[in-house]
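Give me structure tokens for this 195-residue protein.
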Amino acid sequence: MATSSYVDLKEVKEAAMWDGKAMELKGKDLAAYVQQVVREEMERQDKIRIRKEEYEKQKEDREHEAKMEKMRLDAAQARAQTAQTTQGNNTNNSNNTTTQRDNPNSQTWLKRKIQSFDEQKDDIGDFLKRYEAKMSTFNMPEEEWSEILIDFVHGQALTICQNHDHHIDDSYQVLKRELLNAYGHNATTFRKKYF
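Here you go.
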């Protein structure tokens, strides 16, 4: 690519020389004119290159976001299927007619019971304590907590959750540490807040 830019600039320089001579420029005036034309062309090429790089970055970001959204939806669908299987296995002879709204394993039910994290108003430490208490109350296995958490966070917390590997041991505890660190919860801030 550097070669083609060099050739382009060489051609621009030659064309500028011809134009300058046609305008009857000579000596320093001709050199200044040619230099100005070449500089403008270099700036134009830089702008094109920067726009192209920005476009490629935005394209990569959109593809990454789409991939993360697909992973989140796949995880939610898998949880829903697991919940349906569990619900199907738990029905008894009296034809239990529990609606999805009342099923503690459904996303809809969880969303009604757990308030989403608001970066502007909520403290991440307090939110995670409430979240853990609710998940324990609902008898949700801790292995699923990190994946379920994605549906209740936004902004920086959502980015951290989406980039987290949910299949490692103690996934939720690792994610919790990442979130607390990201929001500045460490020994120093704890002492300032409570002592």
